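Notes from the 1:1 (GR / supervisor)

We went over the backlog. Supervisor wanted to see one worked example end to end before approving the batch request, so GR pasted a single chain during the call. The sequence is below; no edits were made to it. Supervisor asked that the structure be written out right there so they could see what the output format looks like.
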Amino acid sequence: MPNLSEHVAINDSETLDEVMNCLSKHLNIPTQGAYDRDYLLKILVKAASMGDTIENTIKSLKEVSSSNTIRYHLNKLNDFDDLEKSLNSALKSPLLPQTKKTRLRLAVDFNLIPYYGEPSVDELPYIYRSEAKLGTCSFYAYATLCIIDNNKRFTVAIRAVRKKETIVAILTYLLAELDGYNLQINKLYLDRGFFTVAVIRWLQALDIPFSMPAIRRGKKGGINQFLVGRKSYKTTYTMTSKQGDSVTLELAIICKYRKGKRKKKGIEYLVYVIHKLTTSLNHIHQDYRKRFGIETSYRLKNVCRIRTTSKNPIARLLFVGISFVLVNIWINLLWRKVSQPRQGSRLIYRSFFPLKQMLSFLSQVIDKQFKLVEGIYIPSG
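Structure output shown during the call:
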């Protein structure tokens, strides 16, 4: 254990102030009476810090209103597009200034949250159909755009996927969120959900360097015809959609030897669609894997996502968006507060301030303000 400074790098109250300044500046939730916006946001932050429901969160606090009162105010949010814009502004607020000075590596991902049951008229426009997962083919889907910079992964834009929205439209929306920030794209990583003729043609037209895994369908023909040999190589392939549209793309066929991993031996073929990459053929797979950073934003997001059984698309977007904002603030605080400059790269003490420590700080400050329930009382008689 190194000798520790007498100076406090960051405390619990300062952590809550950072979070509240960001959320209150960008999220406009209508309130009235004794319950102002900061009051409501603190309840949401407390629920997020515990990864729990609003109902369970309120049961643990003494000086708070009922969960019905909180729901009443949340139900005043009725403009889905406006909330999405507000969350995107909040996401970019903690972006570090030095990040804007570099040519950026960007990653686009889909995050699917299972939906069960028959959607109502209000819910139907926001239900995304995909391959079966966890017992359903229906999901609330959120596409995100992340900046990867020296193992820092900032989520800078989120798009709640609409039912009739094309994947090209989703990607266009996410990239448009960078307009006005003078950010230059060095490389774009996409997951296999974007492997379509339309997306590849569009990215080629924009001349954006990108990499994405190719989907191999069927047992013979198509991409499978290239899975031969013992050396990695590049080739071209013309892909045709069901609608008859086609695109000629460059494939990187990567050969890896399993060496008994997962009790398998022999060659494993990995196929990537690439465009204008400067990465060598031998490092394309490793480079693509780095898009996740040290800790992926999705895994961290799930730690601090407010749980709910509500099917309200607006409330769900709010809860998912807050979780991404909290992760961004944590990365910002790590860099600004829990680190030291040095020659080369900055020394960050991640082990002293993991995300769960930040969430614990947020929880304990709010506990002090609203006081914890210390006993349970049942009806007399």
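Supervisor's comment: The chain is about 35% helix and 20% strand.
Batch request approved.
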